[in-house]
Write a structure and sequence with these properties.
The chain is α/β, with parallel strands linked by helices and 699 residues long. It is built from 29 helices and 19 strands. The strands form four sheets. An eight-stranded mixed β-sheet has the order 12-11-10-13-14-15-16-17, with helices on both faces. A six-stranded mixed β-sheet has the order 1-2-3-4-6-9, with helices on both faces. β2 (11-16), α1 (28-43) and β3 form a beta-alpha-beta unit. α1 runs parallel beside α3 (77-95), α14 packs across α15 (349-368) and α20 (502-519) runs antiparallel to α26. The longest helix is centred in the last third of the chain and has 21 residues, at 616-636. The protein is globular, with a radius of gyration of 28 Å. 48% of the residues are buried.
Length: 699
């Protein structure tokens, strides 16, 4: 898979091009090709003056073959270690060839791809679309195992390598990667890469030695025993614990351990340390959970697995938003940012103008941060037209109503504009809980009516639920899916029911926490259970953010719709006492100037806190299991049908712990598989109530 081309100056251009797949990955063919190519370089070294490594694909190198990696179990640890050793040895031979080697990065260099680039002596990246550089391993529950930790520490220093590159696991464009030190040079086009690489080789004929192989080399910032570093190093584990709040996330801890231990020994020994930590992670369950969610499930959603098949894309040019409140203003901004003309309507022009000011605030901040240019911001804002006149919705081919959590009000809003917008316009209503089919009953073209659940804050939460009503057509669903993707949000598709999917999971999480509180569990222990489980927000804090009056209202709506008494006395007690959540200035927490200052002391007196002291392990499992059981129930009821949508919807929608891989993966990946999950759920049911009994579909 590696083409060899040598010019008259003796420079060899090696072009990676796997004939069997669209990207270059670390598969068997790649390993064999690299070993053979490096052997040839050594065999013909006398005629070689330098080496340029590049790719014929749109990506430079995409890293490991995750389809194979996800199947690896603990019994294959020795095989994993042997493969890592082979890859490590091959890269080590390349960087000690004694000739300058340059990486000409024409596309994404991620994970193993960046490790290959770091084993060269000079890295040049093209500043074009699609070039991303970084180590995403920590987001998949792993660490770079082919020298990424060792080389990054020796290039950037221990602190920067760990805290800025390895633990965050993000990707960067060429300019940012250069500023960080991962890339040495940036050119403006792909065509300039190889010539620039050859120029560097000619100018640096003795450049074939890595800094860490030169006499007298010291790690930037020093080794752990260096006084300056020794003063701050003890705080790093505490910072990690604070960042991940005790959740079972082994990758960040392993990254830090490999970096610190590896910085105290020679290069080759450091590589062995890194390889062993890599093996322990990649054979573990957390990495499999995270690979499933953040690679395979995300990939399935991006590929349109839940989009109706065989339906061509229908272009959308003009978006109408009814209601200029926070949700409507956010949708208008995202739409304009995606290039759509936007009509932002409300009953009063002043309200519509205020909605546009939301976009202006965001663009002003983007300008001050250097993330936008004046002309681009002005063009974006010019695409948003605030109005109080329904006639301005002429020409709109997708309209989103965001103003009312009321079926009658929604009917009136659509009746006012339905004959003004384009005849085939997609009609959408944004709602968090109320069924869409009842809203659709008030429009003429119910087959073109779709529900959206934009989670707040719209500008930050990357998920959108698309709700299919009883009469929603496949064409309308496909158009809605395409629109959500066009505004750079992740769509999941659910069927119509009170609360849909995300709100049901959110309510289940919060309700279980409130139940614990009512049982007499300390409020701080309730919050710790959510955080140490790995949720992105503690449950009582989340309840305050949502608003206790809204939670109470949703419960009352649900009671009316499904005939079950669901209004909790705890929420009722707080709301009746004027404690409605963060926006009201008081809830489960006390607030000062809108900021949380601590749990309300009155909770302990009101609910006899401390009278119940269940094990923390039980509290953690309760908030994990009850939500997973609700998700299984949603599958059984046909509310959701895609495992990928369920996993990603739970993580992005309610902050379900990333280490689990999402609600469905938590069930299948639990120790002992589904049988182990069922056994633990029955234990919880025996101690805390029948709501923990696993659904029949699991048993």
């Amino acid at each position: 898979m590696i083409d060899w081309e040598q010019d008259a100056d003796g420079i060899v251009v090696l072009t990676m091009d796997d004939p069997n797949q669209s990207t270059n990955t670390m598969n068997d063919l790649c390993k064999q090709s690299f070993v053979a190519t490096v052997d040839r370089l050594y065999g013909e070294r006398e005629s070689v003056t330098g080496v340029v490594l590049t790719s014929a694909k749109k990506t430079f190198f995409a890293g490991g073959d995750l389809r194979r990696t996800i199947t690896i179990g603990p019994d294959q640890a020795h095989e994993v270690l042997a493969n890592v050793e082979m890859f490590r040895a091959m890269l080590r031979r390349l960087e000690t060839l004694g000739r300058p080697v340059v990486a000409a990065i024409n596309g994404a260099a991620l994970g193993g791809g960046l490790e290959i680039a770091l084993a060269t002596h000079h890295r040049i990246a093209a500043d074009v679309e699609g070039v991303k550089i970084g180590f995403p391993e920590s987001t998949l529950g792993m660490l770079p195992g082919g020298g990424g930790v060792v080389r990054t520490v020796r290039m950037l220093g221990l602190q920067d390598a760990v805290l800025r590159v390895l633990v965050p696991g993000g990707t960067r464009g060429p300019a940012e990667a250069k500023d960080m030190g991962l890339v040495d040079q940036v050119v403006s086009s792909i065509d300039e890469l190889v010539p620039a690489a050859k120029d560097w080789i000619k100018a640096n004929p003795e450049g074939g030695v890595q800094p860490w192989d030169r006499a007298g080399y010291r790690i930037p910032g020093g080794a752990p025993a260096t006084p300056a570093l020794a003063a701050i190093l003890p705080a790093l584990p505490a910072n990690l614990r604070k960042q991940f709040r005790g959740a079972p996330m082994p990758a960040p801890r392993a990254i830090m351990a490999a970096a610190v231990e590896g910085s105290q020994v020679d290069f080759d020994t450091a590589m062995i340390i890194e390889a062993r930590y890599f093996t322990s992670l990649v054979t573990g369950q957390v990495a499999k959970n995270m690979m499933q969610a953040f690679f395979f499930d995300q990939q399935a959603i991006r590929a349109g697995a839940s989009r109706p098949t065989g339906i061509a894309k229908t272009p959308i040019t003009k978006v109408g938003v009814l209601g200029a409140g926070p949700v409507g203003a956010g949708i208008a901004y995202l739409s304009a940012k995606a290039g759509f003309e936007v009509v932002l309507g409300d009953v009063a022009i002043e309200t519509a103008m205020k909605g546009k000011s939301h976009a202006e605030d965001f663009e002003n901040k983007a300008l001050s941060d250097g993330r936008s240019a004046q002309g681009r911001s002005e063009a974006l804002l010019a695409r948003i037209t605030p109005t109080a006149d329904a006639a301005d919705f002429a020409g709109v081919d997708l309209v989103v109503e965001t103003a009312f959590e009321s079926v009658e009000s929604t009917h009136r809003a659509f009746q006012e504009i339905e004959d003004i917008v384009e005849p085939n316009a997609l009609l959408c209503s944004s709602t968090a809980t109320l069924p869409v089919s009842g809203r659709a009953a008030g429009v003429k073209r119910q087959e073109d009516f779709v529900g959206f659940h934009f989670l707040s804050p719209v500008d930050e939460v990357p998920l959108v639920e698309i709700i299919r009503g009883e009469k929603t057509s496949d064409e309308a669903l496909a158009r809605a899916f395409d629109y959500v993707q066009s505004i750079r949000r992740t769509p999941i598709v659910v069927n119509d029911t009170p609360g849909f999917f995300v709100s049901r999971l959110l309510g289940t999480y919060v309700n279980e926490a409130i139940t614990m509180l009512a049982e007499g569990v300390e409020p701080a222990s309730v919050e710790q259970a959510g955080l140490q489980a790995g949720y992105s927000a503690a449950p009582l804090q989340l309840a305050d953010e949502v608003g206790l009056a809204l939670i109470q209202g949703i419960r009352e709506d649900t009671e009316a719709l499904v005939g079950e008494p669901t209004v909790g006395p705890v929420v009722e007690c707080l709301v009746d006492g004027g404690r409605t959540g963060r926006l009201g200035g008081a809830g489960f927490y006390d607030y000062a100037d809108g900021k949380r200052v601590g749990l309300w002391p009155g909770l302990r007196e009101r609910f006899d806190s401390g009278s119940a002291t269940p094990p923390l392990r039980d509290l953690i499992d309760r908030v994990l299991f009850i939500v997973a059981i609700e998700a299984v129930t949603c599958f059984d009821e046909g509310v959701i049908t895609s495992t990928a949508d369920a996993n990603i919807g739970s993580i992005m929608g309610i902050g379900y712990p990333a280490w689990t891989g999402g609600v469905r993966q938590f069930v299948t990946g639990y120790e002992g598989g589904k049988g182990g999950f069922v056994a633990r759920a029955e234990e919880l049911a025996a101690k805390y109530g029948e709501r923990f009994l696993p659904p029949t579909s699991l048993r």
